[in-house]
Amino acid sequence: MSISLSKTARRATRIQPAHLFACPTAHNQPFSVLRRPPPNYPGHVPLTMIERVGLAVGSAVGSMVNHHRHDLVASLGEATASPYFISRLRRAMLSNPTGRRILRDRPRITSKTLSLDYLRTLPEDTIGRTYAAWLDREGVTPDTRDQVRYIDDPEEAYVMQRYRESHDFYHAVTGLPVFAEGEIALKAFEFANTLLPMTALSLAAVVRMQKDQRTRFWDTYLPWAVTNGLKSDEVINVYWEEVLEKDVGDLRRELGISIPPDLREARRIMREKKKAEKAVKETKATVGDAWRTN
Protein backbone atom coordinates (compact mmCIF):
# COMPACT_ATOMS: atom_id res chain seq x y z
CA MET A 1 0.00 0.00 0.00
CA SER A 2 2.79 2.42 0.85
CA ILE A 3 4.46 1.76 -2.50
CA SER A 4 1.17 2.38 -4.32
CA LEU A 5 0.59 5.65 -2.47
CA SER A 6 4.13 6.78 -3.23
CA LYS A 7 3.60 6.22 -6.95
CA THR A 8 0.29 8.06 -6.81
CA ALA A 9 1.90 11.00 -5.02
CA ARG A 10 4.65 11.17 -7.60
CA ARG A 11 2.12 11.18 -10.44
CA ALA A 12 0.09 13.89 -8.70
CA THR A 13 3.08 16.20 -8.31
CA ARG A 14 4.45 15.63 -11.81
CA ILE A 15 4.47 18.81 -13.93
CA GLN A 16 2.16 18.43 -16.90
CA PRO A 17 3.38 19.70 -20.31
CA ALA A 18 0.43 22.09 -20.58
CA HIS A 19 1.64 23.91 -17.48
CA LEU A 20 5.19 24.55 -18.64
CA PHE A 21 4.31 28.00 -19.93
CA ALA A 22 1.84 28.87 -17.17
CA CYS A 23 2.44 31.46 -14.52
CA PRO A 24 1.18 31.17 -10.92
CA THR A 25 -1.33 33.66 -9.59
CA ALA A 26 -1.51 34.91 -6.04
CA HIS A 27 -3.52 31.74 -5.26
CA ASN A 28 -0.97 29.44 -6.94
CA GLN A 29 -3.48 28.48 -9.65
CA PRO A 30 -1.94 28.06 -13.13
CA PHE A 31 -3.31 30.00 -16.08
CA SER A 32 -2.76 30.39 -19.79
CA VAL A 33 -3.29 33.15 -22.34
CA LEU A 34 -6.86 31.86 -22.74
CA ARG A 35 -7.56 31.78 -19.01
CA ARG A 36 -5.99 34.91 -17.55
CA PRO A 37 -6.69 35.74 -13.89
CA PRO A 38 -7.61 39.17 -12.54
CA PRO A 39 -4.73 41.52 -11.56
CA ASN A 40 -3.19 41.17 -8.11
CA TYR A 41 -2.90 44.98 -7.66
CA PRO A 42 -3.84 48.13 -9.62
CA GLY A 43 -2.01 48.20 -12.94
CA HIS A 44 -0.80 44.57 -12.69
CA VAL A 45 -0.62 42.59 -15.95
CA PRO A 46 -0.33 38.81 -15.30
CA LEU A 47 1.96 37.06 -17.80
CA THR A 48 2.55 33.43 -18.71
CA MET A 49 6.16 32.28 -18.79
CA ILE A 50 6.33 32.42 -22.57
CA GLU A 51 4.93 35.96 -22.51
CA ARG A 52 7.52 36.95 -19.90
CA VAL A 53 10.34 35.58 -22.07
CA GLY A 54 8.97 37.43 -25.09
CA LEU A 55 8.73 40.66 -23.08
CA ALA A 56 12.33 40.28 -21.89
CA VAL A 57 13.70 39.65 -25.40
CA GLY A 58 11.64 42.37 -27.05
CA SER A 59 12.45 44.94 -24.38
CA ALA A 60 16.16 44.11 -24.51
CA VAL A 61 16.33 44.54 -28.28
CA GLY A 62 14.19 47.68 -28.27
CA SER A 63 16.16 49.38 -25.49
CA MET A 64 19.44 48.63 -27.29
CA VAL A 65 18.10 50.21 -30.50
CA ASN A 66 16.75 53.26 -28.65
CA HIS A 67 18.29 53.78 -25.20
CA HIS A 68 15.88 56.68 -24.60
CA ARG A 69 12.97 54.20 -24.31
CA HIS A 70 12.89 54.09 -20.52
CA ASP A 71 9.62 52.18 -20.63
CA LEU A 72 11.40 49.30 -22.37
CA VAL A 73 14.21 49.39 -19.83
CA ALA A 74 11.61 49.21 -17.06
CA SER A 75 9.84 46.27 -18.74
CA LEU A 76 13.16 44.47 -19.16
CA GLY A 77 13.87 44.95 -15.47
CA GLU A 78 10.55 43.45 -14.42
CA ALA A 79 10.64 40.57 -16.90
CA THR A 80 14.10 39.44 -15.76
CA ALA A 81 13.67 40.07 -12.02
CA SER A 82 11.17 37.25 -11.48
CA PRO A 83 11.10 34.74 -10.01
CA TYR A 84 14.41 34.68 -8.11
CA PHE A 85 16.09 38.07 -8.06
CA ILE A 86 13.27 40.30 -6.83
CA SER A 87 12.47 37.67 -4.18
CA ARG A 88 16.08 37.82 -3.01
CA LEU A 89 15.88 41.61 -2.73
CA ARG A 90 12.63 41.32 -0.76
CA ARG A 91 14.30 38.87 1.62
CA ALA A 92 17.16 41.34 2.06
CA MET A 93 14.63 43.94 3.18
CA LEU A 94 12.84 41.52 5.48
CA SER A 95 16.14 40.65 7.17
CA ASN A 96 16.83 44.31 7.97
CA PRO A 97 14.86 46.32 10.60
CA THR A 98 14.69 49.42 8.41
CA GLY A 99 13.86 47.34 5.37
CA ARG A 100 10.94 45.76 7.22
CA ARG A 101 9.62 49.21 8.16
CA ILE A 102 9.82 50.32 4.53
CA LEU A 103 7.84 47.27 3.45
CA ARG A 104 5.27 47.94 6.15
CA ASP A 105 4.91 51.67 5.42
CA ARG A 106 5.34 51.45 1.64
CA PRO A 107 6.36 55.10 1.14
CA ARG A 108 6.56 56.51 -2.39
CA ILE A 109 9.16 58.94 -3.71
CA THR A 110 7.41 61.56 -5.86
CA SER A 111 7.19 65.32 -6.13
CA LYS A 112 4.01 65.09 -4.03
CA THR A 113 5.57 63.14 -1.14
CA LEU A 114 8.81 65.17 -1.15
CA SER A 115 8.91 68.96 -1.01
CA LEU A 116 11.75 69.92 -3.33
CA ASP A 117 11.39 73.56 -2.29
CA TYR A 118 12.07 72.53 1.32
CA LEU A 119 15.00 70.28 0.32
CA ARG A 120 16.62 73.21 -1.50
CA THR A 121 16.67 75.16 1.79
CA LEU A 122 18.60 72.48 3.70
CA PRO A 123 22.35 72.86 4.41
CA GLU A 124 24.52 72.15 1.39
CA ASP A 125 25.99 68.83 2.57
CA THR A 126 22.71 67.20 3.59
CA ILE A 127 21.23 64.31 1.65
CA GLY A 128 18.06 66.24 0.84
CA ARG A 129 19.95 69.26 -0.52
CA THR A 130 22.35 67.02 -2.47
CA TYR A 131 19.40 65.12 -3.94
CA ALA A 132 17.51 68.29 -4.92
CA ALA A 133 20.66 69.86 -6.38
CA TRP A 134 21.31 66.73 -8.41
CA LEU A 135 17.75 66.78 -9.79
CA ASP A 136 18.06 70.47 -10.68
CA ARG A 137 21.47 70.00 -12.30
CA GLU A 138 20.35 67.06 -14.44
CA GLY A 139 16.91 68.54 -15.24
CA VAL A 140 14.90 65.56 -13.94
CA THR A 141 12.11 65.07 -11.39
CA PRO A 142 11.10 62.25 -9.00
CA ASP A 143 8.05 61.57 -11.22
CA THR A 144 9.90 60.04 -14.19
CA ARG A 145 9.82 56.40 -12.95
CA ASP A 146 7.42 53.97 -14.61
CA GLN A 147 4.82 52.09 -12.59
CA VAL A 148 5.57 48.40 -12.01
CA ARG A 149 3.18 46.16 -13.97
CA TYR A 150 4.65 42.73 -14.66
CA ILE A 151 5.66 41.40 -11.22
CA ASP A 152 2.97 39.13 -9.80
CA ASP A 153 3.49 39.37 -6.04
CA PRO A 154 2.21 42.75 -4.72
CA GLU A 155 4.98 43.12 -2.13
CA GLU A 156 7.69 42.21 -4.62
CA ALA A 157 6.13 44.71 -7.02
CA TYR A 158 6.54 47.37 -4.34
CA VAL A 159 10.20 46.34 -3.83
CA MET A 160 10.84 46.93 -7.54
CA GLN A 161 8.98 50.25 -7.39
CA ARG A 162 11.03 51.33 -4.36
CA TYR A 163 14.29 50.39 -6.10
CA ARG A 164 13.21 52.30 -9.20
CA GLU A 165 12.19 55.45 -7.32
CA SER A 166 15.37 55.41 -5.22
CA HIS A 167 17.59 55.49 -8.32
CA ASP A 168 18.06 59.27 -8.23
CA PHE A 169 19.12 59.06 -4.57
CA TYR A 170 21.81 56.58 -5.62
CA HIS A 171 23.03 59.12 -8.17
CA ALA A 172 23.04 61.85 -5.53
CA VAL A 173 24.88 59.82 -2.88
CA THR A 174 27.50 58.47 -5.27
CA GLY A 175 27.86 61.74 -7.15
CA LEU A 176 27.66 60.00 -10.55
CA PRO A 177 26.03 62.12 -13.31
CA VAL A 178 23.55 60.82 -15.89
CA PHE A 179 25.76 60.86 -19.01
CA ALA A 180 27.14 57.62 -20.41
CA GLU A 181 29.95 56.62 -18.05
CA GLY A 182 28.12 57.78 -14.93
CA GLU A 183 24.84 56.04 -15.72
CA ILE A 184 26.48 52.74 -16.66
CA ALA A 185 28.83 52.92 -13.66
CA LEU A 186 25.80 53.31 -11.41
CA LYS A 187 24.16 50.29 -13.06
CA ALA A 188 27.30 48.28 -12.34
CA PHE A 189 27.16 49.46 -8.71
CA GLU A 190 23.48 48.50 -8.50
CA PHE A 191 24.13 45.05 -9.95
CA ALA A 192 26.88 44.33 -7.43
CA ASN A 193 24.59 45.57 -4.65
CA THR A 194 21.17 44.22 -5.70
CA LEU A 195 21.93 41.43 -8.24
CA LEU A 196 19.01 42.54 -10.42
CA PRO A 197 19.81 41.19 -13.93
CA MET A 198 18.63 44.29 -15.78
CA THR A 199 21.40 46.34 -14.18
CA ALA A 200 23.99 43.90 -15.55
CA LEU A 201 22.35 43.81 -19.00
CA SER A 202 22.59 47.60 -19.11
CA LEU A 203 26.38 47.26 -19.23
CA ALA A 204 26.03 46.22 -22.87
CA ALA A 205 25.67 49.94 -23.61
CA VAL A 206 29.44 50.21 -23.16
CA VAL A 207 29.87 49.21 -26.82
CA ARG A 208 28.14 52.45 -27.86
CA MET A 209 30.59 54.65 -25.98
CA GLN A 210 33.38 56.59 -27.61
CA LYS A 211 36.90 55.24 -27.15
CA ASP A 212 37.91 57.69 -24.41
CA GLN A 213 34.63 57.04 -22.57
CA ARG A 214 35.20 53.27 -22.65
CA THR A 215 38.73 53.76 -21.36
CA ARG A 216 37.54 55.80 -18.38
CA PHE A 217 34.78 53.29 -17.68
CA TRP A 218 36.94 50.15 -17.76
CA ASP A 219 39.96 51.67 -16.03
CA THR A 220 38.28 53.81 -13.37
CA TYR A 221 34.54 53.58 -12.93
CA LEU A 222 33.85 49.86 -13.30
CA PRO A 223 36.43 48.90 -10.62
CA TRP A 224 34.95 51.56 -8.33
CA ALA A 225 31.39 50.35 -8.98
CA VAL A 226 32.08 46.67 -8.35
CA THR A 227 34.17 47.29 -5.24
CA ASN A 228 31.67 49.67 -3.64
CA GLY A 229 28.60 47.73 -4.68
CA LEU A 230 29.91 44.55 -3.06
CA LYS A 231 31.27 46.05 0.13
CA SER A 232 28.49 48.52 0.94
CA ASP A 233 25.28 47.75 2.79
CA GLU A 234 22.10 47.01 0.80
CA VAL A 235 21.06 50.46 -0.41
CA ILE A 236 17.46 49.26 -0.81
CA ASN A 237 17.23 49.39 3.00
CA VAL A 238 17.84 53.14 3.27
CA TYR A 239 14.69 54.96 4.41
CA TRP A 240 15.47 58.05 2.34
CA GLU A 241 12.54 60.04 3.70
CA GLU A 242 14.02 59.80 7.21
CA VAL A 243 17.62 60.79 6.37
CA LEU A 244 17.04 63.89 4.23
CA GLU A 245 18.60 66.18 6.86
CA LYS A 246 21.54 63.84 7.48
CA ASP A 247 25.05 64.75 6.27
CA VAL A 248 25.67 62.95 2.98
CA GLY A 249 29.25 62.14 3.97
CA ASP A 250 28.04 60.46 7.16
CA LEU A 251 25.62 58.29 5.18
CA ARG A 252 28.34 57.30 2.71
CA ARG A 253 30.54 56.20 5.60
CA GLU A 254 27.68 54.29 7.25
CA LEU A 255 26.90 52.47 4.01
CA GLY A 256 30.54 51.90 3.14
CA ILE A 257 30.50 53.90 -0.11
CA SER A 258 33.52 55.89 -1.25
CA ILE A 259 33.22 58.87 -3.59
CA PRO A 260 34.14 57.96 -7.19
CA PRO A 261 36.65 60.05 -9.16
CA ASP A 262 35.13 63.27 -10.46
CA LEU A 263 33.72 62.26 -13.84
CA ARG A 264 32.88 65.81 -14.83
CA GLU A 265 36.44 66.95 -14.18
CA ALA A 266 37.82 64.02 -16.20
CA ARG A 267 35.58 64.92 -19.13
CA ARG A 268 36.60 68.61 -18.86
CA ILE A 269 40.29 67.68 -18.96
CA MET A 270 39.72 65.43 -21.97
CA ARG A 271 37.85 68.20 -23.83
CA GLU A 272 40.66 70.67 -23.17
CA LYS A 273 43.23 68.13 -24.34
CA LYS A 274 41.33 67.57 -27.59
CA LYS A 275 41.02 71.34 -28.14
CA ALA A 276 44.75 71.76 -27.60
CA GLU A 277 45.54 68.93 -30.02
CA LYS A 278 43.17 70.44 -32.59
CA ALA A 279 44.79 73.86 -32.19
CA VAL A 280 48.27 72.37 -32.74
CA LYS A 281 47.12 70.60 -35.91
CA GLU A 282 45.52 73.77 -37.25
CA THR A 283 48.65 75.77 -36.49
CA LYS A 284 50.85 73.22 -38.28
CA ALA A 285 48.50 73.23 -41.25
CA THR A 286 48.56 77.04 -41.40
CA VAL A 287 52.36 77.16 -41.20
CA GLY A 288 52.64 74.45 -43.85
CA ASP A 289 50.33 76.34 -46.21
CA ALA A 290 52.31 79.55 -45.70
CA TRP A 291 55.61 77.74 -46.36
CA ARG A 292 54.34 76.18 -49.58
CA THR A 293 52.98 79.58 -50.74
CA ASN A 294 56.35 81.24 -50.24
Automatic annotation (TrEMBL):
Its main location: mitochondrion. Its cofactor is Zn(2+). Zn(2+) binds at residues 167-168, 171, 183. InterPro entries: Coq4, Coq4_euk. It is a peripheral membrane protein. It comes from the Eukaryota. It catalyses: a 4-hydroxy-3-methoxy-5-(all-trans-polyprenyl)benzoate + H(+) = a 2-methoxy-6-(all-trans-polyprenyl)phenol + CO2. It is found in: Mitochondrion inner membrane. Pathway: Cofactor biosynthesis; ubiquinone biosynthesis. Component of a multi-subunit COQ enzyme complex, composed of at least COQ3, COQ4, COQ5, COQ6, COQ7 and COQ9. Belongs to the COQ4 family. Lyase that catalyzes the C1-decarboxylation of 4-hydroxy-3-methoxy-5-(all-trans-polyprenyl)benzoic acid into 2-methoxy-6-(all-trans-polyprenyl)phenol during ubiquinone biosynthesis. This is 4-hydroxy-3-methoxy-5-polyprenylbenzoate decarboxylase.
